Automatic annotation (TrEMBL):
<dbReference type="InterPro" id="IPR013424">
    <property type="entry name" value="Ice-binding_C"/>
</dbReference>
<protein>
    <recommendedName>
        <fullName>Ice-binding protein C-terminal domain-containing protein</fullName>
    </recommendedName>
</protein>
<dbReference type="InterPro" id="IPR018247">
    <property type="entry name" value="EF_Hand_1_Ca_BS"/>
</dbReference>
<dbReference type="Pfam" id="PF07589">
    <property type="entry name" value="PEP-CTERM"/>
</dbReference>
<feature type="domain" description="Ice-binding protein C-terminal">
    <location>
        <begin position="149"/>
        <end position="171"/>
    </location>
</feature>
């Protein structure tokens, strides 16, 4: 039981990260305080040292989970994480976003992120187009915090330890 709990403790983990400093193309200025906050949850199931798209259960960028929104996609709204890769202790790469339009295609918009490239927003309607982009530069910094096990993992570990302690106590009470 303890071994199973320890294995589960390594299963899913959550990493948090922050990118800081972007070039605002709308105002043509570097914004040193602009941030992109994110997190991702998953496990390196194939043990290759790289967390890949099919191994994550969550990718949150500025508060929106681009894995959780995928089932909401339809003919007029697409949401999801198209690509993801994190080399454990190293490089982070992702492409995620959402976009949509009315059935005729007259009104629509989108918001997407490409790590190492930019955050993009656009909207359109008859006689109006709007686009914004915040681009990565050589001054853009990245901080990734150590992974935290999922709350259910802690519960399983605690349960496993309780069962182990109870079994040891029973053996001790029986004298062997």
């Amino acid at each position: 039981m303890l071994a199973a709990s320890c294995a589960a403790a390594q299963a899913n983990a959550t990493w948090t990260f922050t990118y800081t400093g972007f070039h605002d193309t709308g105002d043509d200025v570097f914004l040193p305080d602009r941030q992109l906050h994110g997190s991702f949850t998953g496990a390196d199931g194939n043990g290759n040292g790289i967390l890949e798209r099919l191994e994550i259960t969550s990718l949150i960028l500025n508060g929106k989970d681009f894995v959780a929104c995928e089932p909401d996609s339809n003919d007029y709204y697409i949401c999801g994480a198209q690509a993801f890769s994190y080399t454990l202790g190293g490089a982070l790469s992702f492409k995620a976003g959402e976009y949509g339009s009315d059935p005729e295609g007259w009104v629509g918009g989108g918001h997407y992120f490409i790590a190492g490239d930019g955050e993009y927003m656009y909207s359109y309607r008859p006689s109006h187009d709007e686009r914004r982009a915040w681009l990565w530069t050589d001054k853009t910094g990245l901080v990734i915090a150590s992974p935290n096990p999922e709350p259910s993992t802690w519960a399983m570990l605690g349960g496993g330890l309780l069962v182990t302690a109870w079994a040891a106590r029973r053996r001790g009470a029986r004298g062997g």
